[in-house]
Amino acid sequence: MKIRLIYLINFTRTMKTIMNRKNVVLAMCMAGFFTIIPSVISNVYATNVKYERINLTKRIYTEVKFTNKPLKRHITKHKNKAGTWKRHLKKQEEFTYSIKQQILSAKMRKKWREENISYETQINLNDIKNKYTNNKVEKKQKNKSVDLGLSDYRLNQGPDVEVGIISGDHEVQINAIDNFKIIADGKLLKEDYKGESLLFSRDNNKVKLNGKQVGSTIYLKSDGEAPFSVKGNRYRGIMKVIPARWNSGLTIINILPMENYLRGVIPREIIPSWKIDAIKAQAVAARTYAIFHKNGYRSAGYDVTADTRSQMYGGYSAETNSTDKAIRETEGEILTYNGSPIDAVFSANAGGYTENSENVWGSKVHYLRGVPEVPYSVIDTPWTKEFTFQTFSDSLNKHGINIGKLKNIKLSKLKKGPMSVSDRGISGRVKYIEVEGEKGTKRITGENMQIIFDLDSTLFDLNVKNKGKKIEIIGYGDGHGLGLSQWGAQAMAEKYGDGKNYYRRILSHYFTDTKIEKIY
Description:
This protein is 34% helix and 24% strand. It contains 13 helices and 26 strands. By secondary structure, it is α+β, with helices and mostly antiparallel strands. Strand 7 (197-203) and strand 8 form a beta hairpin. Helix 7 (276-292) crosses helix 8, helix 7 (276-292) packs across helix 13 (502-510) and helix 12 (486-496) crosses helix 13.
């Protein structure tokens, strides 16, 4: 206040002198000078006060004790890479899906493995190769009868993949863009359709087409490039319509060869403008995943889903030139371990270190070992979430963890992997934390923490903020952290890639002791 008064007095005296000389221009300059300077000094003073307050809060302790503090593990000079990913998601909103969906997908994959995988070598690679060779010969010998084109393998295109794209809708409209034929229960119903809009519905265990019952299994087949459109997306191959197995609606299945299936997958799983070695690594991993999980949803009528339960799939509408190129240049290549295709899982970002399978699935898989990642801005950038103590406790209570007033949280300090402590995995991902309250102590798994607080991953730490009034969760990574890290692959490709065969090095890094084999 004193500073402002002194400047005001000086300003008045100076203006009086200047105006006596009738120097209007100089008066305006001086007015601007004396108006700005007090504001600048005031702002500097306010900033200093704010800085002192921040320092004071750091000295305040809370009654809640934590055994750790969040670790600032990485300092990066790059700021633009994370923004690139966000801009990409903004352009293609269908890429975004909630963390709860990711967690559900991971849990379903874990359950699928428990029910279907008795040992890692149950898929025989020689059987796959022999089946492909035999089917090529059979295809040449086939007569030209009503051919659905549903052979297991096509020339240089791999096995057919059945993708469940819709399940449960009571009415589904399919638009035909090219000439096609309809086959109902093995009989040719009609052909030479083009530009038709077909409305399918259900009548008990039968399918109705435009209000008329036509059969229980309907195929729409065309030789066109992308002959069918469903809910705004165009699809290659054959469309199959059946009554849904688990509800009263319909199931729509897209059937097409493996290589064409991948053309609709890879652009939905990574950014098409990435380095070619990263895209190739994703192509080989996705092909291997589809081979390993073929018939994974057979009880529902198809092999894989079109969402995160399997792999994201967008059909013809998703295809791009860069991803098509990567698929062509890795045609027929899959990852194997001891002669069998592997479960080539992947996540968006491992946060600096991938995890051992037993710390996520509960069982050891030899080729899914924790490995370090190349430092990269997206990988090294933390995410944070804040909760008041009341909100934190209330969230626990809603999920059956009633400890009363929170008193203590026990969790080992997060360090850069590899780690060797009981409550964290090798990457630092939380296996469990212990929370103590007035009503006792409870142990919560990292997976449950992720579900309860909607976290990006289980690679996190805890901190007390705002004079002990808030709990901050600070973490790294996005996804389960097993196998291939997509952003990690891009980091390696950007730093070391040669555009030719470096993708093999990326895959061997993330999938321990595996080989790349060409099966067709």
